Each structure stands twice: as C-alpha cells, then as structure tokens.
Amino acid sequence: MSVLGVGTDLVAVARMAALHERYGERLARRLLAPAEREAYRASPAPAALLARRFAAKEAAAKALGTGIGAHAAFTDIELVHDPAGAPQLRLHGAAARHAETLGVRRSHVSLSDERDYALAFVVLED
Questions:
Q1: CATH number of the CATH domain containing 80
Q2: Which of 51, 100, 120, 125 could anchor a disulfide with 56, C-beta 3.0 to 4.6 Å?
Q3: pTM for this predicted structure
Q4: With contact defined as beta carbons under 8 Å apart, do 66 and 83 qualify?
C-alpha cells in the first residue's frame, strides 16, 4: 500500500457557531450528507458537530487533491463511525468517482477537538 493523499484541516468552533447562528438548517443541508443530518438534529452541541464534520470533509477533499468543488461536494463526503466508534469516510457522487480514478482503496481519519477547535487528518491509500 502506498499513500495517495494526505489532508488536514483546523476549524474554529466559534466561527462555525456564528455561521450556524446565522444560517441554521441551511448550513447543515449544505455541509452534511442526509444521514449526517440526523446526528446534527440530535446533537446537544450542533456547532461543534458541524465544526468536526467540516474539518473532516475539508481534510478529505485536500487528500483527494481537489478541495471542495467540481470533484468533491461537502455532501459527497460522509463521516461515519465503525462499531467501535472510530471515524471513517464514506464517499458518494463525484468524490467517490474521483477517488476511484486515483485508485483509493482505504482511508484513515483522525479527529481531535477541544472547546475552541476541531482538527481532522485524512490519509488515502491504494
């Protein structure tokens, strides 16, 4: 296995909280895949959840070498958790097609968050 891409992103939770206060559900629809919206609606801290998801999606898009745009929409990148609670990526649409073109077979996601920041690190392998 070889590394095909690496991405990282750091998000200020206060910035996401301000965006959430201004745009609310519209922001969630723009950033989250349908299944992620259920977790958002149930979250006692929706701005922190949005910050973590945003960081993960930005890191994944950077690892794909595209950033968010034509080859990866926010809603094409879904953050899921395995039975042990470890974060994993599930790609859809243009992001999945681009990953297939690159030969991506595995992804690794690491998330860290504190009160003020959410950090994500993504590695893509063949």
A1: 3.90.470.20
A2: 120
A3: 0.94
A4: no
User: H/E/C letters for each residue in 30-91?
Assistant: HHCCHHHHHHHHHCCCHHHHHHHHHHHHHHHHHHCCCCCECCECHHHEEEEECCCCCEEEEE
Q: E-assigned strands of 13-116? A: 77-81, 87-91, 106-113
**Domain carrying residue 39:** 3-125
Instruction: Provide the number of structural domains found in the chain.
Output: 1
**Binding residue per annotation — 58?**
yes
| Residue 116, amino acid | D
Half-sphere exposure of 37 (CA within 13 A, CB side): 13
9 is in an annotated binding site: yes
Tokens representing 2?
Answer: 């070889």
Residue 115 three-state SS = coil
